[in-house]
Write a structure and sequence with these properties.
Length: 417
């Protein structure tokens, strides 16, 4: 019974709502010039804000992506040689800000002579230990799983004419003066590291290869042959002289560096470059907030003022609606519906202006990014957010006009004419 009694009132409210919205839209279509002015007013306020946010989002996001694409920016370099116990590596591997860590031998021992099948040799090539998750390797390239496997940088592979699958000879030298010994290792190239990941001549190898080479040079093993590399040499070490350390993200570089300095380890980082980018991000975010606040207030005042004046201008028409039997809800819905329609139309125009401006920015200014990103960019979620804000501002602006419309007295308005 209760629902049955409510049905007529609900239907009545819906009818009045449709009447108010229909009247509002017909009035906008009739007064086309005023409607166009209001549409362009909204678009003129929203479009620059969208472009500014697109610039902030595009430029900063591209710079951060560029930093992240360069693993060297995430590296915390241990300067010189020190003594790092295995417990130290285990402690840092458990840190949430660490992205990759791997022991390495003394710098002076981290080289190898490499020759191709024709005997052409490159001497004292840097030997870098690698393992799964190495940030210097592209995702499609697997780190060497065996000590006899190597990854060559593109420049070194070009010099030696080597390709994946080709055999190579590694030469590890020890001694001084006339007392010299050479250990020859039969190795095989398993992949090529592109130049954009590592520029220069280097070999990425299994940690056991570096440990065996250092032990041979230090006189801890009498000989060194390929067959002797097939053991787990690195786990037997209790300490290492150096390490490859990479943070998980840009923010982790400073926290890792602080922790390592507290351990008495001298390190080098790209912290200054990272701080400059993050500072730029904060600055642009502040500028956007200020402009967005000013633009929002301007939109409320401009649209609200226009609707208020429009209600005053149409007091006689609103009074006639009252005389014709239209209720307060219908009269109030007229400025509210007009405001929402103007906001929706204005946002569509603003989105068109944003797309045109963003295309121009990306085509002209994007050349400085060498095709690596966008100068101006907004995602679908940003556009939806902007549309919601625009409609909310329109609703806020029309509330005063709606109140003004609800106070129109039919008899008073007719006496004024």
């Amino acid at each position: 019974m209760t629902m049955a009694r409510k049905d007529p009132s609900i239907r009545r409210l819906r009818r009045r709502g449709r009447e108010g919205i229909g009247l509002a839209l017909r009035d906008l279509a009739h007064d086309r010039r005023t409607t166009l002015v209001l549409l362009f007013t909204v678009a003129a306020i929203v479009a620059p804000v969208m472009l500014l946010f697109g610039l902030k989002n595009g430029v900063v996001a591209t710079m951060i992506e560029t930093l992240l694409k360069e693993p060297s920016n995430l590296e915390v370099t241990v300067y010189g040689n020190t003594r790092l116990e295995r417990a130290w590596f285990e402690r840092y591997a458990a840190r949430p800000d660490l992205g990759f860590i791997l022991p390495r031998t003394r710098t002076i021992n981290a080289t190898i002579d490499l020759a191709n099948a024709a005997g052409r040799m490159e001497a004292a090539v840097e030997l870098i230990p690698s393992a799964a998750g190495d940030p210097l390797l592209p995702q499609h390239l697997e780190a060497p799983l065996e000590p006899s496997r190597l990854l060559l940088t593109a420049t070194l592979a070009t010099k030696l004419g080597l390709a994946p699958g080709d055999p190579a000879t590694g030469v590890v030298r020890r001694g001084s003066g006339g007392n010299r010994e050479n250990a020859l290792l039969d190795l095989r190239v398993s992949g090529i590291v592109p130049e954009d990941r590592f520029a220069g001549d280097a070999v990425f190898g299994h940690l056991d290869l570096l440990v065996a080479s250092e032990d041979f040079r230090d006189g801890l093993r009498p000989t060194l042959a390929t067959a002797e590399l097939s053991g787990t040499l690195a786990p037997a070490r209790t300490h290492f002289a150096n390490a490859r350390v990479y943070a998980k993200d840009l923010a982790g570089v400073e926290t890792l560096a602080a922790a390592m300095r507290a351990d008495g380890i001298e390190i080098r980082t790209q912290a200054e470059k990272i701080r400059s980018v993050l500072a730029l991000a904060d600055t642009l975010a502040f500028v956007f907030r200020v402009v967005a606040i000013i633009g929002t207030l301007g939109g409320v005042l401009a649209l609200g003022g226009a609707l208020w004046v429009n209600v005053d201008r149409r007091r006689r028409s609103l009074a006639l609606l009252r005389l014709y039997g239209f209720g307060t809800l219908t009269v109030v819905l007229v400025p509210l519906a007009q405001s929402m329609a103007i906001a929706a139309g204005g946002f569509i125009l603003a989105a068109g202006g944003y797309l045109a401006g963003a295309t121009a920015f990306n085509n002209v200014l994007g050349r400085n990014l060498s095709g690596q990103g966008f100068v101006c960019r907004l995602g679908p979620e940003h556009l939806l957010y902007a549309a919601g804000i625009t409609l909310a501002v329109a609703l806020l602006a029309s509330s005063a006009a709606g109140y003004r419309a609800s106070r129109v007295d039919a008899a008073e308005s007719l006496r004024e004419t």
